[in-house]
Amino acid sequence: MLFAAAAAGNVEFLLIIFRQDPQLVMHIAKDNKASIFHIAVQNRQESVFSLIYEIGGLKDLIAFTKDDKTDCNILHLAGMLAAPHHLSRVSGAALQMQRELLWFKEVEKIVYSYHTRVHCKGLPNLTGGETKLFDPADTLTPRQLFSRQHEQLRKDGEEWMKSTANSCMVVATLITTVVFAAAFTFPGGNNDKDGTPIFRQNQAFTVFIISDVAALVLSTTSILTFLSILTSRYAEEDFLMSLPGKLLFGLLTLFVSIACMAVAFSMTFFIAYDKTNAKLPLAIAAVTVIPIGCFCVFHLRLIVDILRSAYWSYFSFRKRNIKLF
User: Fold this and answer.
1) How many angstroms separate the CA atoms of 150 and 153, rounded?
2) Per the database record, which ranges form the PGG domain (predicted)?
3) What pLDDT, in 10s, does the model give residues 50-103?
4) Contact 81/157 with Cβ under 8 angstroms?
5) Looking at residues 236-255, what average pLDDT do you find?
6) pLDDT at 265 over 80
7) How far apart are CA 173 and CA 218, in angstroms?
8) Measuring CA to CA, which residue among 89, 99, 150 is closest to residue 309?
9) Is the predicted pLDDT of residue 198 greater than 90, yes or no?
């Protein structure tokens, strides 16, 4: 029951049990030498694993515990690929790779350097399944196990990241082309005498210029950001912060450039119908909100997942000052 609660992430139940019998925190199964923290790592339960920071020096005993059959310690469990239903909590193979790498880094913090060099003989299954043993000449350290288990996920993440960056870069390129051309074709044309824009004194014209320049700068920045993603080396460490951060920055600059382009488009009608029909430019300005809204609806979950995986997830492993005993 204790291990089932840890596998399900039922922290409330575990706290009730531990406060009644504090010794259960260090309960270790006889067959596979697993504790609730080993179960939490294998099932990717951050809320349960974070309790390890509340037991003080006892966490060192957890780090030294290993499976007798395979010599796997808790860091080896972090190096194993999570089950599909755990990976599916995050959308996109690249963000799944980021979450897996974050788990490995967090578990690595609680073990000694010695444990990072221990070779395991197989893959234990703490939930009662069959233990898979390696060839005697093919034992692996935690990092080697992580690389082998996550090789396909890394390739899928690379493909997903490139596909996303390619699609977004096409949109950013179109925006750059449009706003660059608009910068040299001012609404109303130029004065024949001095070549200055006819409506340069109009406030709407000022807004048009500012929004057009902003759209050009931001869309160009977005293109360069997505280009840096495409030319990345896609090493495992790149998925931790570099690639998600670049993708988030590229999406945000692309979104703002779309908004600025819509504002510039609307301002042309405010200039043309300044003193004739004020309702028409207002209606057009309202319509231009549609593409901005579509971008938010279609990409909001992706942006939230990036924020959650690349930034908010770090706080899931921090000490929560929960009183266990």
Assistant:
1) 5
2) 158-271
3) 888 777 777 777 777 777 777 788 899 899 999 888 888 888 899 999 999 999
4) no
5) 93
6) yes
7) 11
8) 99
9) no
* Residue 122 structure tokens: 């197989």
Q: How many residues does the chain have?
A: 325
| pLDDT given at position 167 | 93
**pLDDT at residue 216 in the model:** 95
Strand 122-123, strand 132-133: pairing: antiparallel
39 CB contacts (<8 Å, ≥6 apart)?
3, 6, 7, 45, 48, 126, 127
Burial of 38 (0-12, 13-18, 19+ CB in 10 A): buried
Q: Are 63 and 110 in contact (CB under 8 A)?
A: yes
Structural domains of the chain, ranges and CATH numbers in brackets: 2-149 (1.25.40), 156-287 (no CATH)
Contact by Cβ (8 Å): 142, 78: yes
Query: And the tokens for 195?
Result: 């070549």
Q: 57: how many CB neighbours lie within 10 A of its CB?
A: 6
CB 76 within 8 A of CB 145: yes
